[in-house]
């Protein structure tokens, strides 16, 4: 079956099996291996990409459901080679350790900032609730998103 | 790995029905795919046909026809949770939608899909009972309307071959609407209490194993209609989920609430009754001990929310019907 | 939701180490591969595709214990695209143990590629190697297996009962390992008339490591009979040892390359998929990839041991810990793995945290028909500290003494020896951790604050822990490194290091850069390759920073000596008059004749006919304790049993932070893992069916972002031990104190004595109902 869609700004026309998931096509047919499969059931978020600027688990979407849509993967975050503010913040704030969750984290954060450029801490936490990380305890990820959004607080620690 | 299947990607409902008529073997409808895709991936489901409903504009709408709120079956939980219309006219549905899975899941998962999956713990299902929602089912024999409650439990009333759920609707629930579909002009209410509008509130709550992205161990939705002066419950619908195969209405408890004030003593009594309901629903089950305790917390959350809404409604009752606000769009799609 | 503090932690570091002014050590550089990870450019093993690569999928046993009568693979073999079906009938029957890391290491060998009797749900029955995943998966479904079901045992204490006739445990006895360490006069102390005796039974669950990257491996043969294994592993030389042993190959015909690690936490420390992939690649003559799903990773690889701990302590009224009697029963699952030595690892920790003159530790390890336990972050420390620290709090309640005061009275002090006979504790700064932490946390106020009497109750708790710094005192521990300076002044470090995402590569660069007066980004430090890297014991036992880091320091020191010696000939001065500064070199006498490192190295090659290269072996000479104390506040919903961790303060004695950003990163992640250990994580083997209930992420809950509390970190950096610049380990100790601190906080909030982890809502409500 023919699939026409846009990936990272590039129009694609591919021959795709009906049972292929969006994740499979991105990774295997287009060589975009940034999105990962961490659980296959939409719990971990490592496969998160944007479809028309909304974050989705690409392991739960059949590729043909993306027909006519615009898909953005982590490889599309820095189209001209210049890193996105989120990527820079993730690097600088220590939000990356093993890095396996990073592409999905970045895409969920990107979807949030596209919709809400100055999110509150609670909004960031809820927006990234579907992205699991085992290395960082999320502490520096939260900090990086706040930094990229320009909402990072400075100064003394507030007691909870 | 998925079993091979054929896929249809219709653009309209008419085209869908036409395609369905010609299909043989097992047919699976694909909405958001959040349940179906992993089920196919691990082989639990092996349909011959997959019909993708996710790009049919007429199925993705949320609108208000003056009496009822109408949702297309592929309205996503993100759309529902973010809809000012739903927030105003069926708040418990917006609440439940906002607590389904994660952002990524809500961006794909649909109300129709939640109904079709019929998971015992599906968060939207007790809400549809509390709102007394009706389904519009289209099939070879034309349109069929059926209450969600009957659809999910009556033998033979579920989806028949060649049918699909087109829409879900429920009576607008804000002040200014009767709750049974009739519109009441602000200046000519037929409500007895001095011509003032009844107060209608609804709430949803769930208990999972963490704060978010969790399957409900218990969920509950409540709708109350109250006489505005004394705050007496005139009508109510209460539904519980994750206690058996389907969520269910608690008609006896609803009856007992009628005529009472929404105060702490009512909550205490209702909680006691809810514990009995748990005992009756899952006697001897390992989870019974936990759920009969935990439902106390759930009842406190849901009824506390209702109380709070009532006090807000009362405070603003002099300002006439609430026009909503905050959220951007009123209607989606269609 | 309640208002939270932000997660910004102060730059809280308590340093007294060393008078020297450090330029590179102590700075928080980003990870060396952070940009590749942030752009998706980095290729993990699962992202790799080789010409002609085949896919293997494994058929896992659906039964907890069964003899395989017959396997009919005809249907699978007939499927186009299937290159082979492998079972116990056509694969080596060499027995091995997945955790051995050096040749000659003694361990029960009871695992083989495919057994003829499966011992747990998740054991390997067969595998299909096919052109693609779809074909492999389809072929798996066509394999017919005739099983003869056998009785099974799922609980450790049942496996210990002699009246249960269980062939599952054959051919070894149950327990298959037991040992005792004892000092002083334990029994007498408990019999003393005025002793206050506190007794507990603590149970810790089997958990899944939950690295976001599920297990994966690629292997390919070359034209000369050599097999190359690409694997995100922790111990290259362990992989080589096991693969070569199982396949019957010389060590130099097995090449193991460490690929980017998508998280491990011990889960990828043991050898699981590698011998399979290597065998399939040899058998088919093609590259083969094995990629597990999450479900498969959870049930079929490794877990943390389930441990039941019996602990009795004897105290005097003033709160002096007179004696402790400890016993652990360790459920290692269906295969031995590290089931014997982990019991000892637990026991040794028990002698290194408190001054206890009389102590006995006994351990028994058993097999059960459940998923296999093995290495897991902390290697027994989270288990033993959960057992002992819950007991200490229990004692504090009974004695009416504040838990911080009780601990301060009994904790070890800097310079103490190990009462159990292990290596000296070194600069053990646990008292500083507890004292600083209590102050910064506002312990006294929080502890005395009312818990509340309504639905929500608050409590504060804390716990301490210790962990090791390598194998010194137990096993051989050394590392060899080769360091070179090239003709442009850039450098290459060749070593067997394996970065698990913690920052090992960057840390090594910082250490070398400090010595060589060079920028870390001028150093290339590739990860291990058994064909080209010198030997390393592996990224295990919390040894990397302390031991491999010390090796980097010594090697750089030697290289600097050589550079100065050679440069001195050209600068016509004495070697000790050569000055290295900002990547330039000169003599003290003639500062105007200064040249770049590159120019000097080129000149040395041209005139002195030699290379600036050093190969150095470093042998560990100490094994001090790393120490940590976590302070936790919780809020418990007494109606639903859900616990919210409000805030965590983690204080760690790390000797010296080479890269404080990395150190904090380890602590944040360790806290997340520890909260999960305390509250939600359990693969939960059903005692009737033997099936893991928590066998996928929708049923196995890690702490996610909304549930993660703010974490503050204080680092105690007083140096003094033999690690590079005094550095000690952090990766494993980071998670050790968290779970007992959370449990102690919940018990304080509720007045309960909950002792079975995780504290699920069900367990909490049951405990409340019993009050």
Automatic annotation (TrEMBL), chain A:
Domain (2Fe-2S ferredoxin-type): residue spans on this chain: 1-77
Q: Which PANTHER family match?
A: OXIDOREDUCTASE WITH IRON-SULFUR SUBUNIT
Q: In which pathway does it act?
A: Alkaloid degradation; nicotine degradation
Q: What is this protein called?
A: 2Fe-2S ferredoxin-type iron-sulfur binding domain protein
What is the top EC class of this enzyme, as a single word?
A: oxidoreductase
Please give the SUPFAM superfamilies that the UniProt record associates with this protein: 2Fe-2S ferredoxin-like, CO dehydrogenase ISP C-domain like
UniProt keyword annotations, A-Z: 2Fe-2S, Iron, Iron-sulfur, Metal-binding, Oxidoreductase
Organism equals Acididesulfobacillus acetoxydans
One MF term in GO for this entry?
A: metal ion binding
Q: Which Enzyme Commission numbers does its entry carry? A: 1.-.-.-
Q: Which domain of life is it from?
A: Bacteria
TrEMBL record, chain B:
- Region (Disordered) residue ranges read 311-334
SMART domains xrefs: CO_deh_flav_C (SM01092)
Give this protein's Gene Ontology molecular function annotations: FAD binding; oxidoreductase activity
Q: Which PROSITE patterns does the record match to this protein?
A: FAD_PCMH
Skewed-composition ranges (Polar residues): 311-321
Which part of the chain is the FAD-binding PCMH-type domain?
A: 1-175
Question: Recorded E.C. number(s)?
Answer: 1.-.-.-, 1.1.-.-
Which PANTHER family does this UniProt record tie to the protein? XANTHINE DEHYDROGENASE SUBUNIT C-RELATED
- Protein name (database record): CO dehydrogenase flavoprotein C-terminal domain
Organism expressing this protein natively: Acididesulfobacillus acetoxydans
Its ancestry begins with: Bacteria, Bacillati, Bacillota, Clostridia, Eubacteriales
Automatic annotation (TrEMBL), chain C:
Could you tell me which InterPro entries the record lists for this protein?
A: Ald_Oxase/Xan_DH_a/b, Ald_Oxase/Xan_DH_a/b_sf, Ald_Oxase/xanthine_DH-like, AldOxase/xan_DH_MoCoBD1, AldOxase/xan_DH_MoCoBD2, AldOxase/xan_DH_Mopterin-bd_sf
Sorted alphabetically, which SUPFAM superfamilies does this protein's record hold?
A: CO dehydrogenase molybdoprotein N-domain-like, Molybdenum cofactor-binding domain
Main enzyme class: oxidoreductase
Q: Respond yes or no to whether keyword Phosphoprotein is given for this record.
A: no
Known EC number(s)? 1.-.-.-
Which segments constitute the Aldehyde oxidase/xanthine dehydrogenase a/b hammerhead domain? 39-151
Gene Ontology molecular function: any one: iron ion binding
Q: Does the keyword Oxidoreductase apply?
A: yes
Q: Which residues form the signal peptide?
A: none
Which keywords describe this protein according to UniProt? Molybdenum, Oxidoreductase
Per the record, which residues fall in region Disordered?
Answer: 1-21
What PANTHER family has UniProt attached to this entry?
Answer: ALDEHYDE OXIDASE 1-RELATED, XANTHINE DEHYDROGENASE
Instruction: Supply the name of the protein.
Output: Aldehyde oxidase and xanthine dehydrogenase, a/b hammerhead domain protein
Q: Which organism is it from?
A: Acididesulfobacillus acetoxydans
